[in-house]
Amino acid sequence: MDITVNILLTIATAATPLLIAAIGELVVERSGVLNLGVEGMMIMGAVGGFGAGYLTGSPWIGLLAAIIVGALFSLLFAVMTLSLATNQVATGLSLTLLGLGLSGMIGTSFVGQPGVRLPNLDIPGISSIPVVGRLIFGQDPVFYISIALTAAVMWFLFRTRTGLTLRSIGDSHTSAHALGIKVIRYRYLAVVFGGACAGLAGGHLSLVYTPQWVENMSAGRGWIALALVVFASWRPWRVLAGAYIFGAVWIGQLHAQAFGIPVPSQFLSSLPYLATIVVLVLISRNKRLTMMNTPASLGQPFVPDR
Amino acid sequence: MRIELVKRPQRSALFSMLSPFIAFALTIIAGAIMFALLGVNPLNAFEIYFVEPISQVWQLHELAIKAAPLILIAVGLSVCYKANIWNIGAEGQFIFGAIFGSIIPVLFPQFEGPLVIPLMLLLGMVGGAFYASIPALLKTRFSTNEILTSLMLVYVAQLFLDWLVRGPWRDPQGHGFPQTIQFGDSAVLPELMPDAGRANWGFVFALVAAVAIWLMMSRMLKGFEVRVLGSSPRAGRFAGFGFNRMVFFTFLLSGALAGLAGISEVSGAIGQLQPVISPGYGFTAIIVAFLGRLNPLGIVAAGLVLALTYLGGEAVQSALGISDKVARVFQGMLLFFVLGCDTLIHYRIRLIGMALMKPNGAKLEAAPKLEEAR
């Protein structure tokens, strides 16, 4: 029983950064912008979060710094693609490349340093209830943020007027612009929100998941988050489900390695990446469904005419 | 302050030529600020970074060694990107080219002679093309996004290589080091001028590939087809150009070139397989492709510049104690500025300051009310 609980807890911890980053990117893509820089913003959040936590000794300041760094870094992408109308695919890629390089340079002095970890929630009496107590009331704070964030985004996108406006921009920026909606302003806010989420996800990696700084520690999670958005066909609750499936795959292969299953560890390590491909194939096979759900102006640059 | 883009009636030939240079100048300025922040005299740092690494003949050879894979890969990618097909997994195709090409020297070391090298190069190209065919197949059969699949395959390729050199292909006499046996003499790509430096035939392959692709893109129907399908898939369809065929063509071509780069690197510069065989050539080549304006001849120049950032990174690390990651930062900044400057080709940029917005103040105040009314 205890083992099961432990495994479920580690799955939640592995799924949380994927969920947060993917939810952020979902909002960005719903507004019609494709930001391939998730991996870069995530790793910047990770190094910023670790650095701030390490220097101040407070994991909370670290978490805040991760969010701010992610948001600021995404602003770079926003200026390029929204104000200068650059190619979104290429700009997103360069954001990732720059993020991986910059984080490596900033983090040189952090390598091998002991980090600080966000404490798990601990409500006296309740968190110690077997099974339920630890699963529901004993996890790290970011886990709760991730769940709340998913619910909030769901409500925002489908139950508010602003959410409707955002989705309409994603489906046709020309029509939205003709209706007098500030397309570029909405998109700026969406991109920065996505950046803040990716930063938070990175902060989770370096302040909760493995409280230390390792170069390239995001290990492709930003890209998996991007795949999750496609897999979820741009629906928040499906992102939640997808993130936990991938969390399970990630943890499953780690446990399989620990149990000494006679399969080379490298093959097990490649499972999350292969699973991503398989899942993408399965979901994109149904062309009609994908066409129906993809925001129609996704990835297309928009220059307002006057 | 606000930025406003005004469309030019036609693309500006002036900025089309100037933009890489403006981007380079901006990168230098940003780099100077970065060095200053790191507490290093920028002028001194730039001398170590950009001048010293190419001040002697043998160093030019090192530059050629680094530039060769970048140019080879980027030339292939430029065709993909022109066709609006996004292969970003060249790093994986590079690795698979290296693995396929190494089959002969690792598994059949007793096979020697002048045929070895051509066969290895051929196998390398087959390996890269094979690995690139996976995202192409998934895209054409299931319309799966090629960006994500080709990238995921990079991680898989890295892990596969890691397994090979630690497992079945490990040198039994290697004292447990994760590496294959040293390639035999006839499996090593010859150096061009052994007396002057280490540069090998890989650089020649890169130049030949660049010229060949340039000819194809500017003088042959295939190049026209690529350009038409890239700028207007609909027009391409009416002209009878098949999109699926184009996906395969660009992926196989860029994969084969990346594979050739991989086996050339292993056979020429390294001499055996090891867990890591590339300092991110496959990703840096994306920057090279854009910096070279997706033009094969521009890519040759861009490849040399980016190769210099690698050498410079190593130089500042040993001379100033700054992390060699500085190279990656330079590369990232360069790509950013290139993309930004390319906007100037199609648009005029107008900066609208706060002072100018004041006359419209009344309009701005009215806006929120409008939104309420809606």
Automatic annotation (TrEMBL), chain A:
Q: Key word Oxidoreductase present in the record?
A: no
**Which keywords annotate this record?**
Cell membrane, Membrane, Transmembrane, Transmembrane helix
Record's Gene Ontology CC terms? plasma membrane
| A Pfam family it matches | BPD_transp_2
Q: Where in the cell is it found?
A: Cell membrane
What protein does this entry describe? Inner-membrane translocator
Q: What are the recorded GO MF terms, alphabetically?
A: transmembrane transporter activity
Instruction: Spell out the CDD domains in the cross-references.
Output: TM_PBP1_transp_TpRbsC_like
**Membrane topology qualifier:** Multi-pass membrane protein
Lineage, uppermost ranks: Bacteria, Pseudomonadati, Pseudomonadota, Alphaproteobacteria, Hyphomicrobiales
Transmembrane residue ranges:
6-28, 33-54, 60-82, 89-111, 141-158, 188-210, 216-234, 241-261, 267-283
Q: Organism, per UniProt?
A: Mesorhizobium plurifarium
